[in-house]
Amino acid sequence: MTPTSQHTIGPFFPRTFFQPGDNDLTRLAADAAPSTRGEAILLRGRVLRAGGVPCVNAVLEAWQADASGHFRHPLDPGAAEADPDFCGWGRAWTDAEGGYEFRTLSPGGYGDRAPHINLHLMGAGLMRMLRTTVFFPGVGADPVLDLVPPERRSHLIARPEGAGLFRFDLLLRGDAADETPFFED
Amino acid sequence: MILYPPWPAGVEPAVPIVSYPNTWTHTPSLAPIRRPLTLTEATGPLDLSRKLPCGEPNLAMPHPGRMAQGQLIHVAGRVLDEDARPVAGAIVELWQANAAGRYFHPIDQRDAPLDPNFIGNGRVRTDADGAYGFFTIRPGAYPVPVEDVWWRPPHVHFGVIGPASLTRLVTQMYFPGDPLNAYDRILQSVPDPAARDRLLAEALPPDQVGSGWLGYRFDIVLRGRRATPPA
């Protein structure tokens, strides 16, 4: 069978689909205790479109390994060691300034992958969702980051802004030198 | 082992789209970089039941005895992979305009009535056969407020989460036979006519749907097939 075509999420993704804590990857639910098996971090940034204009009401979804580099998923041979309290998934929407934030634990690397967080970005005018990856300062070799032309790699590395705080801004469209690199799988 | 072949030609929308300004300002100018499949893309959240609680599949009666305005419909189908295997436990999110073509959303300030009995969104989980279903109303059409105005035909937004991060899908369902479909810049951005046809729900014969609701079937196919084709 052929996969169903993608479409834009449009401007009207329901606010009522969001609950407090949706952007907190450290909890299985808003009323669940956060996992403390790792270094708590806050990842925040802005989503900008052509002209540096804030992209409002866009939806971001994050997915990452736990602090030891495991996923609670049968494809991970180390799933049994995965943190049972860590959700690893979260969703946020951008405010009037295009801002978003995720609360999470610093991800662990695994195999040849450096520590990273995968982001999906959906929004009005995006007929196909955008997929990118957040890396952290000091990142070494990584088979995904290494595919990005060297001059664009810095756009994929979150900037430290203080203890436990990282900034990752996304520019959807602009000068080629400034656009955030996106991936297709 | 699950394989994720690239999207077949003509299935993905062609962008940017004339008279859809956001596609010109939001779409990256550089092509995406093809990346290899690693565990992060091949895995995904398998149990979001506490994070994204699933609710009542009847959007047309948010309060007992108080019905939404509009033509009552039942939209149901299955979530499948490219081998036609059911995807069980997937989260299906649906949102839509009311019968007057207005969304219950602070951004939609159009001069069309809100319906106090219709919020127009719901979330369910597929069963072991990959099946889902919603009771709702047929949404209205609405104009797109751009200089060269065009109209969105009645449509229902769908989002599916599961079973892998890579299979995350957002799409829209249309109603067969609606004259606005042929003019919809979003539907028509899908180049392959067969792919467009798969975005149209199938209207069920009236003798199959009883007296309460008109029935529509809409199957959703996610990416992914087995490395070894099924026998």
From TrEMBL, chain A:
Domain Intradiol ring-cleavage dioxygenases: 11-114
Domain of life from the UniProt record: Bacteria
InterPro entries, per database record: Intradiol_dOase_C, Intradiol_dOase_core, Intradiol_RC_Dioxygenase, Protocat_dOase_a
A molecular function GO annotation: ferric iron binding
Entries under Pfam families matching the protein: Dioxygenase_C
Alphabetic keyword roster: Dioxygenase, Oxidoreductase
Residues passing through the membrane, by range: none
Family: Belongs to the intradiol ring-cleavage dioxygenase family.
Protein name: Protocatechuate 3,4-dioxygenase alpha subunit/protocatechuate 3,4-dioxygenase beta subunit
TrEMBL record, chain B:
Organism of provenance: Humitalea rosea
Protein name from the UniProt record: Protocatechuate 3,4-dioxygenase beta subunit
Similarity comment: family membership: Belongs to the intradiol ring-cleavage dioxygenase family.
PANTHER family: DIOXYGENASE, PUTATIVE (AFU_ORTHOLOGUE AFUA_2G02910)-RELATED, INTRADIOL RING-CLEAVAGE DIOXYGENASES DOMAIN-CONTAINING PROTEIN
Keywords on record: Dioxygenase, Oxidoreductase
InterPro entries per record: Intradiol_dOase_C, Intradiol_dOase_core, Intradiol_RC_Dioxygenase
Molecular function, one GO term: ferric iron binding
Segments forming domain Intradiol ring-cleavage dioxygenases: 67-224
Pfam families, alphabetized: Dioxygenase_C
